[in-house]
Structure formats: structure tokens, C-alpha cells
Input
Amino acid sequence: MEKLSEWWRKLTWTFAPSSKVEATKAVTKNFILHWFPARVTYRSMSWSYSWWLGTVSFSLFLILTITGIILMFLYIPSVERAYWTIKDLQHAVSFGWFLRNMHRWAAHLMVFFVTLHMVRVFFTGAFKNGGNPDANRPVNWAVGMFLLVFTLLLSYTGYLLPWDQLALWAITIGANIAKSVPIMGNYLHFLLAGGTQIDQNTLIRFYALHVIVLPALLLVLVSYHMWRVRKDGGLAVSEQYKMQAKKEGKRLVPDDYTTFAIPALIRRAFLVFLISLGAVMLLSLISNAPLEEPADPSWTPNPAKAPWYFLWLQELLAITTIRTPWFTINGGFVGGVVIPGILFLWGLIVPFIDKSPDEATGVWFHPSRKLQNWTFGIIMLILAFLTIFAMYFRGPSWNIYWPWAWPPIPHLF
Ligand code: HEM
Output
């Protein structure tokens, strides 16, 4: 009987450490759990501080990796076969539609949640060190900027793979932005498309980027990102305890403000994963991933819209394209390259130029960071506005229409 309960305990993993040593060892001796710290502050575990958005992003990345590996057994990256393998997935392979839907939904959600995670980090001043000489959160923020770009590129390269009209024309828009870069434009376009046209060479390039290069880069960077969170002494909000104790002239007693990662942190992380998985499965049940007609380079849909997360860019490009009898502004370059480039560079250096006091570290909307928060908030609102405008108010020839006069393309996702 005792053996049975021991076996059940192991199976269900109802681990409750009986001592501090046991709790610490449980983390440090386990290959996967070693990723977590032995102890964690109460505040960094709270739902309302981080909303666990980083963990949601990571959960979605895991779901994408697993569903993506299974999809690789079924998909063929050839312009003659790609579309039909996706059709088979939708209609012939058992649960193929569900697998495809899960991959597609997780990809869109990951773009959305990684962006939300970045917004949360900014508004909580969580890229600050809070006077902790051992922390280097600005670097982790910069790493995050690259994670955001790689996440967008990963989603975008996957967009081409079904080789339908939606894919072909969304990629054509991207390739044309590359073409508008002065001097190097044609070369960049050639590099991206693997020739002068979007064809088999492009498909195989995007496929290699999508299944190997970008996931590998993301995996390496995400691992470093998480490791840095640990090295930096946990989430930025933890600095608040240290500052408070310092102010009161107290020696910090870890027990006062921390608990063991096992089971508290692990349990929450697992719950966040389950909720993310549940949401992806539910969405996949109720909404099918789009598949239009097979790609046809001779027939251009009008309007041809980029995927939703690049619509702001397409809109920016349109409004910065100015032609007058006296001068012309190349919107592809200004809106498609210069402005996003400036935004990215500003994003990279912003933690290094933020001179707000240490007390603003890990605090939502700290009053001393009003200027920073307004600037960032307005930039994000403009990008959201451009996205919504391009989605609902642009019709044929990129002219302005009311959404009821020219409804948004239903397959933008
Ligand atoms: C693939 C994308 C990403 C993943 C999987 C990821 C994952 C995580 C996780 C799990 C944490 C722990 C706290 C939390 O859950 O909120 C975290 C913290 C952090 N992330 Fe990310 N992240 C990603 C992208 C980004 C981006 C785009 C940025 C900013 C540009 C960023 C900046 C940070 C910073 C500065 C911290 C420390 C926050 C603090 O100390 O409170 N991350 N990330």
C-alpha cells in the first residue's frame, strides 16, 4: 500500500518539500527545473504585476515548435505540391485541419503576446536595474527587441508556405519594400526572393528560414533572455524589496519576501501553459485558418494587404509616398525602411537613456516616468491606429473606403 501511494505520488508529482534543503535541491538537481531559481519573490509571482505575458509567449513558442515539427512530416515545399499538401491537411489527413489551425493561431497569438509583454515591461520600468550593480536589464530589453523582430519574421516566413493567393501577394508586398531601399534595393530583393520573381527559389528560402534558421535563433535568444532574468536577480519588481530594506537599514532576510520556486512558481508557470494551450485549442476548434485559391502570379488581388502585424508598415509606406510636380518622396524607403529603422534603434537604446530614479524600477506607471510612458504610449497608439485604418478603411488601389462600403478582407489572419 505504501509502495502504491509512493508510485502515485511520483506519477502525479504532488511534490511538497519537507525542508528548505529539499526544496532547493529539487530545482538545482533537475535538468529542466534548473532554469528556475530556487527562491522567488512573492511580488514577481503575482498575476497583476507581469500578467505572466513572457511565460504566455514562451508557451506559444513551445506549442508552435511541437505542431510545426508534426506539420513538417506532411508539408512539401514545392510550388507544385505545397498548396495541395495544405488542402490535404484541411480535408484528408485525420485532424490535419486542427493541427494547422493550432499552428496558425499560436503564431498570431505569439506576435500579439510578445508585443503585449514588451508594453508591460516598458510601463513597469522593468528594463531598469534599480541600483542593483549585478543586474543588466537594459541588455535583456535589447535582446527582447531582437526577439520581437525574429517573432515577426518567423510568422511572416510561415505566411508564404501554403502558396495560395493570400501568401503570394503578402510576400510580394514585403519583397517590394526591400526593393525600394536606395542603391541596395534590387540586390536585397534578389536575395530575399532568390531571383527576380517570387517562385520556387523564394519558397525554399522562406521554408529554410521558417523551419531552421529563425526557430534556432529564437531558441538561442530566448534561452539567453530567461537566463538573464535569473542573473539579474529575478524580475525588476524584486528590487523594490531590496530598496525598501536598505532604506529601513535592515539586513535582508530572504524568507520575508521570497518563497520556494517549487511548488509555487512551477505550478503557476504550468497553469499559464495549460491556459495558453486551452485558448489555442479552443480558437482552433471554432475558427479555421484561411486557404484561398492556389497562388497565381498573373492575377493580382486588389487591394493586396500584408498580414495584420505588418499593416501599419504598409499604411506608413502609403502615406509617406508623395508625388508632386516638384519633388517625389519614396514611401517604400521612408515609411518602409527609415521610420521603422528609427523606431527599432530608439527601442534598442531607450533603457540606456531613461534617467528616471531607481524607485521607478518594476512599478506600473511610476510618476517620474511620465514623459517616457507618454512617448511610448503614443507611438504604440499610432501603430495600432495605422493597423486598424489599413485593415478596415482601405479598399481597392489603397483608396479610403468605409468598412461597410469595402469590407476588410476576411482572410487577413
Ligand atoms: C519570444 C519572445 C519573448 C519571450 C518568450 C520572453 C520571455 C520572458 C519571460 C518568461 C520573462 C519573465 C517575466 C514575465 O513572464 O513577464 C521575461 C522578462 C523580460 N523580458 Fe521578455 N520575452 C520575450 C520578448 C521580449 C521583448 C520583445 C522584450 C522587450 C523588447 C522583452 C524584455 C524583457 C525584460 C526587460 C524582462 C525582465 C522584466 C522584469 O524584470 O520584470 N522580452 N521575458
Q: What stands out?
A: The first helix runs from residue 2 to 12. The mean pLDDT is 91. The two ends are 55 Å apart (CA to CA). Residues 57 and 114 are 6 Å apart (CA to CA).
